[in-house]
Design brief:
445 residues, elongated, alpha+beta, 6-stranded antiparallel beta sheet
């Protein structure tokens, strides 16, 4: 474009030079009288002017050539810049196209996100209901656990008291044994003078020895009965009567009789004290036995609670009647309300959730079906803690179709397993229980 502008400029310069020469030639025309005088100088002036004009034109041409050369260089530089800008424009167009595609993709993702938000809102409503049910169950279990802990605390306190009472009983039994040993020694001293008394006292010692053995066994087993205490009372009374009879039958002197009476009275007092202590011990042992029975029942209950639970359940979709559930636009939790078996009560028929009570391997089975439909299949998903595990799917345009599936899962305590109805799907059940959900604990880990 700059070269096109230079050519008119060159023509303009040439025209101006020609016009200047013509003007100078016109100005040099002189009157005829002086023409003769100037004829001698005209050739010289014309030649000088022609040379000057030619030099000016050549200078202008050289300048123009230099300018043209510079303009060519600038034009090449501009062409390279134009090519670079064209390449940049192409890149920018490509980036704009990419941005447009990304915008379209983001618009599609936004649409999908809105749909997912709608689904999540629906699932959140269902989950909130399930969470409320779980909260109620947890509160009930927490209350039971609190009561159990309080009972266990009381049981421990009672056991501590029982241990203290047993220690006291043992101490009193030791005292009684010492007293019996003293009685034995006194009776042995009197045996030289009272043969009959020695024989009877020997029997008494044997009975007291048996009583001591029985008391020792009673202290160990804590199962003495009131009848045994009554028998001990009767034996002690018989011994007292026999001692009185022996005192009457004795042929010893009055001093010996008085001494024996005093000894017998002392022994009777000691035996009375012993009987009173034995009665108190029997009552304490009876109370301890009763408390021990209660404690054993509580301990057995705690053991049963702490033992590995037996877990198995089998359910059907509808509690009564017949009907089809679905189709829905989103995944919907299914609640199997007809419970055939629920050993361990790990399945909740109000929420449809199975909550693992112990860590172990569990096996689950799914059986579903529905009448044929051109647009709506029969399909459910086995879900563990929100994760889709397996699917059961059946689709046919007419007649009844069914499907089944199963899985063995390793569950931790508190893991949740349930079934979801897939979007746009249906499931059918009636009194024959076509659609079922079952599970059981295989073994603990």
């Amino acid at each position: 474009m700059e070269m096109t502008m230079c050519f008119p400029l060159l023509l303009l310069i040439c025209s101006l030079s020609t016009a200047q020469l013509q003007t100078e030639a016109d100005n040099e025309i002189i009157p005829h009288g002086k023409q003769t005088e100037s004829q001698g100088r005209e050739p010289t002036n014309a030649s000088d002017r022609q040379q000057t004009c030619t030099q000016d034109i050549n200078a202008v041409l050289r300048e123009m050539s230099a300018t043209l050369a510079e303009q060519r260089v600038e034009m090449r530089h501009l062409q390279r810049e134009n090519e670079a800008q064209a390449a940049k424009l192409e890149l920018q167009k490509t980036e704009v196209d990419k941005l447009k595609q990304q915008l379209k993709a983001q618009a599609a993702e936004l649409t999908n996100t809105r749909a997912e938000l709608s689904n999540m809102a629906a699932r959140t409503d269902v989950t909130e209901n399930q969470v409320e049910a779980l909260k109620r169950d947890n509160e009930a279990q927490a209350a039971e656990l609190t009561n159990t802990r309080a009972e266990l605390t009381n049981t421990r306190a009672e056991l501590t008291n029982m241990r203290a009472e047993l220690s006291n009983t043992t101490a009193r039994t030791d005292v009684t044994e010492n007293q019996v040993e003293a009685l034995k020694r006194d009776n042995e001293a009197q045996a030289a003078e009272l043969t009959n008394t020695r024989a009877e006292l020997t029997n008494t010692r044997a009975e007291l020895t048996n009583m001591r053995a029985e008391l020792s066994n009673t202290t160990a087993r804590t199962d003495v009965t009131e009848n045994q205490v009554e028998a001990l009372k009767r034996d002690n009374e018989a011994q007292a009567a026999e001692l009185s009879n022996m005192a009457a039958r004795t042929d010893v002197t009055e001093n010996q009789v008085e001494a024996l009476k005093r000894d017998n009275e002392a022994q009777a007092a000691e035996l009375t004290n012993t009987r009173a202590e034995l009665i108190n011990m029997a009552e304490e042992l009876s109370n301890m036995t009763a408390r021990t029975d209660v404690t054993e029942n509580q301990v057995e209950a705690l053991k049963r609670d702490n033992e590995v639970k037996q877990v198995a359940f089998s359910t059907s979709l509808l509690a009564s009647g017949s009907g089809t559930i679905g189709p829905f636009n989103t995944y919907t939790p299914l609640v199997f309300r007809y419970v055939v078996t629920n050993i361990g009560n790990a399945y909740n028929p109000n929420t449809g959730l199975f909550i693992a009570p112990v860590r172990g391997a569990y096996h689950f089975e799914i059986y579903i079906g529905a009448h044929g439909h051109a647009s709506h299949p029969s399909s459910v998903v086995l879900v563990k803690n929100g994760e889709h595990i397996f699917i059961a799917y059946a689709h046919q345009p007419s007649h009844y179709g069914s499907s089944a599936n199963g899985a063995t899962l390793l569950l931790e305590v508190g893991d949740v397993v349930f079934l979801r109805l897939r979007g746009n799907s249906r499931v059918y059940d009636n009194e024959n229980h076509h659609s079922t959900f079952s599970g059981n604990l295989l073994f603990t880990m």
